[in-house]
Amino acid sequence: MLQNLKNGMGAQGYDVVSFFDGSPKKGDETYTSNYNNAKYLFSSLENKEKFEKSPESYTPEYGGFCAIAMSEDKQLDPNPKSWEVRDGKLYFFTRMLFGIIDAKRQWVKKPEELRDLADKAWAKMNS
Known about the structure:
By secondary structure, the protein is an alpha+beta fold. The protein has six helices and four strands, in the order H-E-E-H-H-H-E-E-H-H. Helices cover about 35% and strands about 20% of the residues. It is globular.
């Protein structure tokens, strides 16, 4: 599976569980877990343990690439400060797409349609 990793690290070092609590935090090297050939960092032992019980529930969609770019059949690095949890899944977005478009703002206008496009592109990239 494709993944957006920097030096083998998923979610750019952010604690993926913390997004589901509504307050994203950078992870700490003290609390690490490996999943699907990626290293994830957590801000607490509690979050690390939650992740390890169900990692697929917390890892970002589309391997951590920008969701709206994926809907356009592209792989772009997201800005983890631009994110959304929808239907129990974590999505990342680029803060500004091509310098003029706010990707998350576009996504929330028609999330189901864009998610369907992104799901198809993602499946094709991973086949």
